[in-house]
Amino acid sequence: MLRLHDTATGTVRPLEVREPGVVSMYVCGPTVYDVPHLGHGRFVLVFDVLRRYLTWSGYRVHHVSNITDVDDKIIDRANREGRTEAEVAAEYEAVWYEAIDALGVRRPDADPHATAYVERMVELIGELMDAGVAYRTSDGVYLDVGRVESYGLLARQTLESLQAGARVDVDDQKRSGHDFALWKAAKAGEPTWPSPWGGGRPGWHTECVVMSLDLLGEGFDVHGGGQDLAFPHHENERAQAVALGRTFARHWVHNGWVVVGGEKMSKSLGNFTSLTDLLERVDGRAYRLLVLRSHYRSPLEVTPATTADATAALERLDNLARRAGEEALVDVEPDPAALVSFRAAMDDDLDTPAAMAMLFDLVRAANSALDAGDHAAAARSVATVREMASAVGLALRTDAAALDHDVAAMVAARDQARAAKDWPAADAAREALVARGWVVEDTPAGTRIRRR
Ligand SMILES: [Zn+2]
What we know:
Blueprint: E1 3-6, E2 11-14, E3 22-27, H1 38-56, E4 60-65, H2 72-81, H3 85-102, H4 118-130, E5 134-137, E6 140-143, H5 159-165, E7 180-185, E8 200-202, H6 204-216, E9 222-226, H7 230-243, E10 251-255, E11 258-259, H8 275-281, H9 284-292, E12 300-301, H10 304-326, H11 336-347, H12 352-371, H13 375-391, H14 400-419, H15 423-435, E13 438-443, E14 446-451
Parallel strand pairs: 3-4, 3-9, 9-10, 11-12
Antiparallel strand pairs: 1-2, 5-6, 6-7, 7-8, 13-14
Helix pairs in contact: 1-9, 2-3, 6-7, 9-10, 10-12, 11-12, 12-13, 14-15
The structure holds zinc ion (ZN).
């Protein structure tokens, strides 16, 4: 049985699901106002690995991840660029999904958008007002966290100690510094929705509590996100559910930071400026492997050096797959004993570094067996490598060299078709490339492709 760290208890404990064989998981998605950063890439990969491993283990996973499409940062960008919030959000949502696809991350089963849930959020805020745990100010509606039992659970601190550590809040209308906005009264030039408390928009913390409960129901299994979301975002989501007597997430899973040079953020020369930048320079599978080779709760160093290292490891995997093809190894069953060890590592709070060490030991074993002409042993190791790789969503490629010629021909065909304004032919060439795992981009210099 999978044991996972739970932020609410601070311990690694069994994942005890609500319904046998089913895992319902809500992971906070992006606010679509800019290109995604490296940390976004890490969290989607961590939860994609969790989802795939659960699926591989026989669970049916219901995965929901939201798109925050109304927010201060979206409004700021829209105002700065003279566009609507919807245009900005649509643009960066497309960029988001392109990056997700390039990482080989499965899209969620549902991706609720905040703007589609405003009415439900107004209802929930009304319930909190009726329950006497929320109050109005001149700029909106706030939750009185002092009225919520066990506030501070995810911060692993009491409200008293949180308050002792808090800086003085400038907003003197709030009863306490940790009270947070459920409803933000409309300001000029902002999108607005009607409510009993006047026009305005809901706060971010209300968005996720409403959408998770609506789509997954009370007592859903896993709520996840980056560790920076545990407090206050997840604490505040939970506070609203608890204040209304609703059972919220059973297990809280948070992944660690991305660091560059040991620091959370760095823009030194040569470092990646965004996930989009990384994906232009590195195979998305190499980022997955880099993520897998570090424990999900540890800081992850993402630099050209660490991604180059992961790329080299990925090449060893691809080379083995290619070699297995060339040697026409037959399909055999994976080694059950090796899979038992793999499962034990994964079940131990997703010990992917140990699991990847096993995988690369098998890569070495398979190559040695091939060198020695022992095809039976090699086939067994290769089958086991494939099985482990598929459990964590790592696709092996055998086609890199063989396809080069065909791919070049398709790129040329697309450029010719575009020059001749033959759009159906250009689209067909694009689709052929996409089907072979390439991301296709149009540049002034012609069609540019890179590995998904
Ligand atoms: Zn959220």
